[in-house]
């Protein structure tokens, strides 16, 4: 049991029906999303409530099409909310902002720009007052952290898929977000690269003390990375079905976790949820 640790739980004080806690980073309240379709309105999400704590790493799993990307893109401010509210540190979001960084499955880099220039694009917008050298230093720091110290001046079109996703990770961290939103970031990578990038992600997340919300279809990845795994019910009208606390201590070793009895309990819990 040495691998297990109690996760810090929120202190929720209820005042006049309002839940308040200083530890909440992201608050999704009675969220609803409706897509108009030729056959009428399609209610993807309804009565979805979720609180994510500061510095927490949450993974989201659920059946294909249940609305995971819809939820994440609403948190990112890229997809309008039909009803309910999303707040970051108690401030309702009004659109995209530098407080939320996003990493997609495919990083969509500008192929004609270098690695460094691709990361600079966001940094220039977020830190317009900084000197060019300061901005470059931030970009180079994060590119080095993801293992691209030798590739600052390579064109994005010359990079492998794994290297491009490394740039995607550096680009998201370089704008110093409070919340990092990841939509199946390693879905297109081979298992070796995937494992390497999971380690890179956890190392920077831990150092920067930010909050991470990541969609994945991989149950093992969900357990390895998360403090909590959030399970979404199948749509339509999807909401949070269950939440599993992952109490393995950090830093985590893949080998030690796989050998731990609780790993199989966690795994069974998630697979049972997905199969029913
Ligand atoms: N712009 C849109 N207009 C109409 N329907 C949409 C739109 N975007 C998504 N949908 C529908 O909403 C549902 C949820 O889609 P979403 O991409 O959020 O699911 P998901 O859980 O992320 O799926 P996957 O795991 O396959 O990526 C799906 O039925 C999808 O077809």
Automatic annotation (TrEMBL):
Which key words are in the record? ATP-binding, Cell membrane, Membrane, Nucleotide-binding, Transport
Q: Which GO terms describe its cellular component?
A: plasma membrane
MF (Gene Ontology): ATP binding; ATP hydrolysis activity; nitrate transmembrane transporter activity
- Residue ranges of every copy of the ABC transporter domain listed in the record: 26-259
Gene3D superfamilies, alphabetically? P-loop containing nucleotide triphosphate hydrolases
SMART domains, A to Z: AAA
Question: Principal localization?
Answer: membrane
Enumerate the subcellular locations listed in this protein's record, separating them with semicolons. Cell membrane
Topology in the lipid bilayer is annotated as: Peripheral membrane protein
Q: Which domain of life is it from?
A: Bacteria
Q: Which PANTHER family match?
A: NITRATE ABC TRANSPORTER ATP-BINDING PROTEIN (PTHR42788:SF7), TAURINE IMPORT ATP-BINDING PROTEIN-RELATED (PTHR42788)
Its recorded name reads: Nitrate/nitrite transport system ATP-binding protein
- Which organism does this record belong to? Lutibacter oricola
């Amino acid at each position: 049991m040495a691998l297990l640790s109690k996760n810090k739980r929120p202190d929720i004080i209820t005042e006049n029906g309002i839940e308040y806690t200083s530890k909440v980073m992201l608050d999704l309240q009675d969220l609803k999303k409706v897509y108009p379709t030729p056959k009428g309105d399609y209610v993807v999400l309804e009565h979805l409530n979720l609180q994510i704590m500061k510095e927490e790493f949450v993974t989201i799993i659920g059946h294909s099409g249940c609305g995971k990307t819809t939820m994440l893109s609403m948190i990112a401010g890229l997809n309008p909310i039909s009803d309910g509210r999303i707040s970051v540190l108690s401030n309702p979001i009004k659109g995209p902002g530098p407080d939320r960084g996003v990493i997609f499955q495919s990083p969509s880099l500008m192929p004609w720009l270098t690695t460094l220039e691709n990361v600079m694009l966001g940094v220039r917008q977020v830190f317009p007052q900084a000197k060019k050298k300061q901005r470059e230093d931030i970009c180079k720091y994060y590119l080095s952290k993801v293992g691209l110290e030798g590739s600052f001046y390579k064109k994005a079109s010359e990079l492998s898929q794994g290297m491009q996703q490394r740039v995607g990770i550096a680009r998201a961290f370089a704008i110093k977000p409070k919340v990092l939103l990841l939509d199946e970031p390693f879905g297109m990578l081979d298992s070796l690269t995937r494992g390497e990038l999971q380690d890179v992600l956890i190392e920077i997340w831990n150092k920067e003390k930010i909050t991470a919300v990541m969609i994945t279809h991989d149950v093992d990845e969900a357990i390895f990375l998360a403090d909590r795994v959030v399970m979404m019910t199948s749509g339509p009208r999807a909401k949070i079905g269950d939440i599993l606390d992952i109490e393995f201590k950090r830093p985590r070793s893949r080998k030690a976790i796989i050998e731990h009895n609780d790993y199989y309990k966690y795994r069974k819990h998630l697979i049972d949820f997905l199969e029913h």
